Amino acid sequence: MRILIDAMGGDHAPEAIVKGAIDAAAEFGVQIVLVGRGEAILKSLTALGLDTLPKGVEVANADDVVTMEDDPATVLRARPDSSMVVGLRLLAEGGGDAFISAGSTGALLSAATLVVKRVKGIRRAAMCPEIPTKTGSTLLIDCGANAECTPEFLVQFALMGSLYARKVQGKAAPKVGLLNIGSEPGKGTPLQKETYALLTKAAELGLLHFTGNVEARDVPLGAVDVVVADGFSGNVLLKTIEGTASLMTSMVKEIFLQNALTKLAALICRKGVLAMKNKMDYREVGGTMLLGISKPVVKAHGSSDARAIRSAVRQAIEAVNGGMTEELHSQAAAVSDLLKRQ
Amino acid sequence: MRILIDAMGGDHAPEAIVKGAIDAAAEFGVQIVLVGRGEAILKSLTALGLDTLPKGVEVANADDVVTMEDDPATVLRARPDSSMVVGLRLLAEGGGDAFISAGSTGALLSAATLVVKRVKGIRRAAMCPEIPTKTGSTLLIDCGANAECTPEFLVQFALMGSLYARKVQGKAAPKVGLLNIGSEPGKGTPLQKETYALLTKAAELGLLHFTGNVEARDVPLGAVDVVVADGFSGNVLLKTIEGTASLMTSMVKEIFLQNALTKLAALICRKGVLAMKNKMDYREVGGTMLLGISKPVVKAHGSSDARAIRSAVRQAIEAVNGGMTEELHSQAAAVSDLLKRQ
């Protein structure tokens, strides 16, 4: 398996990306292709105390870099030689099995859609992060790529999330919930009401296991395996978990810093607190899959360190092994039929 | 000051409501009017070991009760003798200065709008809870009353939230942020883009202190004093904080339950952990103001215990003392002018 990585994307590129890639190549035994400025990558190697590329790691040169200021919609034309676009081209042409970037989310989504293309019949690609819950983790689809959605988009998101949970996460009959402001079927805006009806029909056809509306409060408690949302409210859900976890982690820290005794308590609980912090931390989970693209593309967090990149590589490997693209293709057709009958 | 309380609303009515009301009358020195079935209220008194109404507490009889199954839109016609409707009538007619209910949110909003009426010029009443943050608390307006909103609604929410922060919370120039999926002005759906432009103009006119978009991640960190949102995404924000806090509180509990040493650590940190739990707990904050109604109406949480009711009474007292209705009236006119000039 060959995993392509954008060496130049993210706040800590290229150093953290190069280190994470090398770690992943050693740990997972896959071939890694670092896409980016050869000189900068070699400099990072030197900084890591290496004078040559380790076994399993190679470089594909790309002279340009996508910046956070670039307009996502025009990045393909404006930056054809960027590490992101070159990497996606390699993916499309068979030069690798998956692509990972910690660069601009909007640019990655737009360029992946144009270069690698969506699965036939899928109207929008969507971001699908795993969020930490009491019982493990839950997939959230969408979380910001598509601020405005139609019921058709949401039904396709549900389908893609359910497939990912089955094929990649190995869940037998993942529970799919529609993010809403109440559990009753009539709740929400017309978007939720229409989507609820369509998901009910999709479930009747055996396409997925729809368990109804899910309130935001029940998501971190692990009520469902897949949360379906428009990109706006999905983004609010995701970032509120992040902010609340950050707030509470700092509160726990303060509790332990009160006096000599609480500092002793901190030592006793060190392992548990670290485990909690890691569970609530996106870096342990890896990146976010762009579902709906015809080959696996992973968006790593912009502030990814080497550990986050290593996790994103593991996720890319699982996505390749899951091979959900073929089934998504046939299910997309079934959903189109369902919508046509409306 | 006379505070009217719906004795029959909420999961633990009337016992918890009666106890909270008695506690509040003693603690805050205000007159409390318990509205509801006289017999049930007296039975609660007996259960509390009292054989008569304490000083400062009286009963206004209402024979019926609004249930969670009642259609909010028709509750005024269907349940004219309910404790909720009778209490709101007393408020409208000057029989009290504020009304508190832990009953159905939708019914309270609908009945308060019809019986007590909105402030002239205000298009929608909105729920405005205080959410816990690193720096204290932040007002969230709206959090679910209005799932679908227009830019005009959101600008009025911003105005009401800002006024409440000034008049009731005593903040000099509260920072108002628009909940969005990015900090840049062009982010979000057309609703956010148009609202951003209007809020910028309102700020230029000196009506409020608009600090731009705020991402959900920064809300628990205390980035702004007032978060403006449509009811759908505001509800997602509020309930995600609740769910994440619940998840992390149970994780902290587990850390302390590992072994004899961690149990010792739990004893050492008991006070701090309790303080954290209380900070993240809605019951410490009290209820949620319905802003835009011409007199103070407080929605207490459905699962309110006596402590929550006591907090809601304190909040109602502060709202009465703040006297924001008059200023809201004149500012609503200024916003109408602003919108007309568009």
From TrEMBL, chains A, B:
It catalyses: a fatty acyl-[ACP] + phosphate = an acyl phosphate + holo-[ACP]. Its EC number is 2.3.1.274. It is found in: Cytoplasm. Pathway: Lipid metabolism; phospholipid metabolism. The keyword Oxidoreductase does not apply. Coiled coil: none annotated. Catalyzes the reversible formation of acyl-phosphate (acyl-PO(4)) from acyl-[acyl-carrier-protein] (acyl-ACP). This enzyme utilizes acyl-ACP as fatty acyl donor, but not acyl-CoA. This is Phosphate acyltransferase. It comes from Candidatus Avoscillospira stercorigallinarum. The gene is plsX.
